[in-house]
From TrEMBL:
Protein task: Catalyzes the condensation of ATP and 5-phosphoribose 1-diphosphate to form N'-(5'-phosphoribosyl)-ATP (PR-ATP). Has a crucial role in the pathway because the rate of histidine biosynthesis seems to be controlled primarily by regulation of HisG enzymatic activity.
Superkingdom: Bacteria
UniProt cross-references to PANTHER family, sorted A to Z: ATP PHOSPHORIBOSYLTRANSFERASE, ATP PHOSPHORIBOSYLTRANSFERASE ATP-PRTASE
Keyword list, A-Z: Amino-acid biosynthesis, ATP-binding, Cytoplasm, Glycosyltransferase, Histidine biosynthesis, Magnesium, Metal-binding, Nucleotide-binding, Transferase
Broad enzyme group: transferase
Family under the similarity heading: Belongs to the ATP phosphoribosyltransferase family. Long subfamily.
GO biological process: L-histidine biosynthetic process
Swiss-Prot/TrEMBL cofactor(s): Mg(2+)
Enzyme Commission number(s) from the entry: 2.4.2.17
Pathway noted in the entry: Amino-acid biosynthesis; L-histidine biosynthesis; L-histidine from 5-phospho-alpha-D-ribose 1-diphosphate: step 1/9
GO CC, one annotated term: cytoplasm
Record protein name field: ATP phosphoribosyltransferase
Length: 287
């Protein structure tokens, strides 16, 4: 039975369970449940703190887990990324007070030398600064609400998860330097261990959900002499399916296109003479 760790709280918890449910697995109804067996699919779920998922996977106590790339790297656990899951995307960045009237502002990474940095991801920060030869005065570990640390006087700079930037702005902070890391939810497994039985099925199922989320199905009709132009716009994941229209010699095309580009592609297809362009959501897929 494949043992899968899933975050029990926080930003990753609901979308992780949602993805597993879409992939056909049982998920808990009550957030206090800590273990859930799904014998039909030969898997067992362990609901653990997001930070602890990599620790359990790294020691082999569970076979695989869902966590954030940032959390996995910060944990130092003996685990590797098996599959990017495409949700909980964020950046991990430095930020400091900004604006006119600051006597000695921090505006670039080298300015961190001699200052105090607060973060929940102190291993990531220490590694990043060490690599650049920058010595901070201190790296202060906080559990959360790191954005408040500067105002409250325990740090001069923070390194934290940024998605929309709303939390930073509310705290009067501004990012500086390049992102330390781009993160998303990932499925992880132990580094050197043999692939556990059942992981291939879980992987295909999750990939199926990701594809169904990222792509739509597009159908259109195009005059035969413009087919090549249309296919150049919609090359598909592998290749489009082209058939003959029944009452004319126009071509009917069915192809997968990235959901985010749907309208741009429809405009471009229209310009090369395609009509009856219809977009359909993909409910499930196995590529
Ligand atoms: N606003 C956000 N947008 C996208 N991803 C986020 C956001 N906040 C956190 N994450 C991601 O979620 C993971 C951390 O989750 P979360 O913040 O729930 O854990 P935690 O801070 O350790 O736990 P908690 O805050 O519940 O004590 C990281 O991978 C992080 O990149
Ligand atoms: O850029 P934004 O869209 O504002 O999102 C980023 C914020 O979301 C997370 O906080 P969370 O809610 O997990 O609280 P925490 O800091 O207490 O962990 C993260 O730690 C940032 O504070
Ligand atoms: Mg958090």
């Amino acid at each position: 039975m494949l043992r899968i760790a899933v975050p029990n709280k926080g930003a990753l918890s609901a979308p992780a369970s949602e993805m597993l449910r879409e992939a056909g697995y049982r998920q808990r109804r009550d957030t206090r449940e800590l273990v859930l067996a799904d014998p039909e699919n030969d898997v067992e779920f362990f609901f653990l703190r997001p930070r602890d998922v990599a620790v359990y996977v790294g020691t082999g106590t569970v076979d695989v887990g869902i966590t954030g790339r940032d959390l996995m790297l910060d944990s130092g656990a003996d685990a590797v990324e098996h599959l990017g899951l495409g949700f909980a995307r964020s950046t991990f960045r430095y930020a400091a007070p900004a604006g006119p009237g600051l006597s000695d502002p921090v505006t670039q990474v080298s300015d961190i030398a001699g200052r105090r940095v607060a973060s929940s991801y102190t291993t990531l920060v220490a590694q990043h600064l060490a690599k650049q030869g920058i010595e901070p005065a201190a790296i202060v570990h906080l559990d959360g609400a790191v954005e408040s640390s500067v105002r409250l006087g325990v740090a001069d700079v923070i390194a934290d998860v940024v998605e929309t930037g709303t939390t930073l702005r509310a705290a009067g902070l501004e990012v500086f330097g390049d992102p330390i890391l781009r993160s998303e939810a990932v499925l992880i497994r132990q580094s050197e261990a043999e692939q556990p039985a059942g992981l291939d099925i879980l992987t295909r199922r999750l990939e199926g959900v990701i594809t169904a989320r990222e792509y739509v199905l597009m159908d259109y009709v195009v005059p035969a002499d413009r087919l090549e132009e249309a296919v150049a716009i919609t090359p598909g994941k592998e290749s489009p399916t082209v058939s003959l229209q029944h009452h004319s010699d126009a071509r009917a095309v069915r192809v997968m296109v990235p959901r985010s580009a749907t309208n741009r592609i429809m405009d471009a297809l229209y310009d090369v003479g395609a009509r009856a362009i219809i977009v359909t959501s993909i409910h499930a897929s196995r590529m």
